[in-house]
Amino acid sequence: QLFYQASQEAIGELLLHILAHNPYLRSTAAVLHSLPAIIQFWLQVDSTRIACDPEGAWQLDIDLPTANECDIIFFSAMLASLLDYLNQAHAAVLLLQSPLDQARVGKLFGTHLGWMEFEKNTIRYQIFLQSGTESEVSLGAILPPARQISLNQHKENQRHLFVRQVLARSARIFQDKRELTTAVEFLNFANEELEKKIQESNKELQMARSIQNGLFPQTVPDWKGLHFWCFSEELVGVSGDFFDTFHLNSNEMAFLIADVCGHGVPAALISALAKISFSNHSNQGPQRVLSNVNQDLIRHVKMEGYLTAIILRFDSTLQFRYSVAGMPAPLVYRARTHTVEELEGQGCLLGMFPDADQNLKEYESALETGDKLFLFTDGLTELSNTADELLGTARLHEYILEARGLNCAGAGQLVLDKCREFALGQKHTDDITMVVIEASPHIDQYNEYMQSARAAFRFHDRQASLANLQAALDLFPEKPQTLYSLTKLLLAENRVAEADGYCDHLLQLNPAHIGGLVCKSIIARQRGLYELAEQYLKEAELIHPRHALVLYHWSLVYAAQGKANEAHDALTQFGQLVHSTEKQARLRQHLKRLLPSSVMLD
Question: Residues 142, 147, 150, CA angle at the centre, nearest 5°?
């Protein structure tokens, strides 16, 4: 009985959803004709049929693959729920035929069903729809001769059938539920394991990304009269593209952009190896650098990976020598003629061919005031649109000309936006890197501001010096020299918060700047953060052990904490490096003010 009620409620909810939303099931006849489809929604049956006889009674036949008592309960509940949905309060359902013999069905119903026929694997119901209020209907016309059956009595007999049917049907459902529960548990376990693997993979990618960010610069400082704008976007967590700078001497610097075959962690590992190799050979000419890196990659990577690259070596006059190894040709916007020039050079891949140096050549060129040099990996030119057309270099020529009136950063961003507009949101299939190098038209004015700042400082006019430094920084915002000078001068003016901001920018451009680390230590010491002040000095010591400026400020940090012995040791080491008695005396007097009771400083 419980199973019958549960089945009736569950089926009723489904029928309400199906029938209420079907515009073709608006009449009782239409709903009854849909019974075969509803039954097949619930169970796998061989076939099902329904028809209405001339007397208005409906006959439903259901052919099952195997006989089962529980199905009788289920179908009875379904028909009861259907008639309830149709508001057929006086309708009746009679079981006429069953795949079970009369004894088994009679035992379920608790009575002898003499009128019921036996037919293997077939269930037959008779459905009577009434418009009156009579509680009983005579079935003599359609049942076996001379048999009068009370529908109410039949319903009472069926109650016993329901109890037996519910046990068998519940057992089947319970087994199905156990199998489903097992499957769900397995899927949950598999999902947890998959999430763990994804988290581990994400951690590995994050670690690789952090290492890569530490190896390669994210921004490039202005150098002499050059501005740099750099963009890089990886396909996956870590990139196979990278760029780097090498400050060779006061008048020369080298710039590198490279593209390692592949993506992700393997490409990043080769990038790290290539970084070391390029650094080791950076003092050589561009062609020799590429040739030696090629040999290093063959020796260590053993032709399991390769890269393309271009390296340029600039001097202070903005002339440069360069060599290309399989990279797209550099493009130069010439401000004087308002044209785009494609530089020569092609070369071959690095890390694949032992004799690659035979195909590597060195070229010369120069940048004039206002010129912009565009370097990029093939991930940019191989962007495609919805028509599967590649971007190519011809479109880059057009985009560069459109950006001719913009500065370095503005031109780079406009070209990048145009490339994305061409791709129309199509996902790129490779890492993308683009660099713009501009010969600034403001270098002479910048030098004038810097000279004026130095002159004002010599005459103790700090405000004029600050104004000129700020004007110089507006022209070249990525100049470490200007940022360092501003930081020191603002500290002297006790404008600590402003100095801290400029110092952060300086260390972003050059994390190994000794002066910048010392300034951060001064700021931390003035704020009473002595552990942080020591941490910055330790970082500086790792870069340059026994640096006089670092030792000077070690003594001040120790003295501020009342550590007289440590302050004296730092002062002694400072004196060994700096032989100027004036500087030593100045530091000694400063320490005495911090440690007035110490006799070690006398």
Answer: 90
Task: Inform me whether the pLDDT recorded for 598 exceeds 90.
Answer: no
- Taking the C-alpha atoms of residue 240 and residue 378, their distance in angstroms, rounded to an integer, is 12
The H or E element containing residue 564 is helix 564-577
Residue written as tokens 């009269």?
A: 225
Q: Which pair of structure tokens corresponds to residue 111?
A: 């009575």
SS (H, E, C) 413-471: HHHHHHHHHHHCCCCCCCCEEEEEEEECCCHHHHHHHHHHHHHHHHCCCHHHHHHHHHH
Phi then psi dihedrals of residue 308, to 5 deg: -110, 155
Q: State the pLDDT at residue 154.
A: 43
What count of Cα atoms within 13 Å lies in the side-chain half-sphere of residue 195?
Answer: 6
- Phi, psi for residue 47 in degrees, rounded to 5: -165, 165
Residue 350: φ, ψ to 5°: -100, 135
Q: What is the CA radius of gyration of the chain?
A: 44
Q: State how far the alpha carbon of 80 is from the alpha carbons of 143, 314, 486, 541, in Å.
A: 21, 91, 89, 88
Q: What angle in degrees, to the nearest 10, is found between the helix axes of 69-85 and 102-109?
A: 60
**Torsion sign over Cα 398, 402, 405, 406:** negative
Give residue 209's pLDDT.
Answer: 65
Q: What is d(CA 81, CA 6) in angstroms, rounded to the nearest whole number?
A: 11
Q: Can you list the pairs that 504-507 forms with residues at least 24 positions away whose Cβ atoms lie under 8 Å?
A: 506/480
Amino acid at 74: F
Closest Cα to residue 279, out of 265, 296, 262?
Answer: 296
CA 375 – CA 519 distance, rounded (Å): 35
pLDDT tens-digit map of 346-372: 888 999 888 888 889 999 999 999 999
Q: Give the H or E element holding residue 265.
A: helix 264-281
First vs last Cα of the chain: how many Å apart? 104
- CB-count exposure of residue 104 (10 Å: 0-12, 13-18, 19+): middle
Structural domains for the chain: 2-176 (3.30.1380), 223-441 (3.60.40.10), 444-594 (1.25.40.10)
The predicted model gives 444-454 an average pLDDT of 94
Least Cα distance to 482 among 447, 436, 456 occurs for: 447
Q: What is the mean pLDDT of the chain?
A: 81
What tokens were used for 380?
């940019």
CB–CB of 400/374 below 8 Å? yes
Chain-centroid distance, C-alpha 74: 51
At 253, list the tokens: 């610097």
Task: Please state the length of the chain.
Answer: 602
Inter-helix orientation angle 2-20/35-42, to 10°: 120
Are the C-beta atoms of residues 472 and 480 closer than 8 Å to each other? no
State how far Cα 293 lies from the chain centre.
Answer: 32
